[in-house]
């Protein structure tokens, strides 16, 4: 099965443009789009190396760069990467497949927000998590968030993370630190190497 984001783009070639404009409009309207970045920023000192995995148009990575971090963003969609470069100059934005992630750098935090893991083909999810683990610096953590009902049950995700060598430090149900429970409809998993 191919990446679900690529499938969505092939079915609707204007989807990436719609996505870009949607977030640009929300930013102009003053919508708070930096909740994920605030959590990540609180986890590390200034100047930390952060990978925005599945960065889209650069919303999270751009906010982290403004806060003084050294950010690299990777996304499969070249149109989203072009928007990230235009809207958020500074970070290193790269087009690439997270299932083939192979960067020379190691990161203090890898953030994967915006339901990215649910767009990945099911057969690649453990490999994506394995590659994230391999890109963590000593003491680094991966922070992954996505919603329920998107074809990737939370227990399956946690089993994949364990298979990839990642263990939960903290499980939350929102980016604003609400505790995770069996009835949560969202997960934010702070994972460390096992």
TrEMBL record:
- Organism, scientific name: Actinoplanes digitatis
| Protein's recorded name | 2-polyprenyl-3-methyl-5-hydroxy-6-metoxy-1, 4-benzoquinol methylase
GO MF assignments:
methyltransferase activity
Domain (Methyltransferase) spans 50-140
* Keyword Phosphoprotein on entry: no
The alphabetical list of record keywords is: Methyltransferase, S-adenosyl-L-methionine, Transferase
Q: Which InterPro entries match?
A: Methyltransf_25 (IPR041698), SAM-dependent_MTases_sf (IPR029063)
For biological process, the GO terms are:
methylation
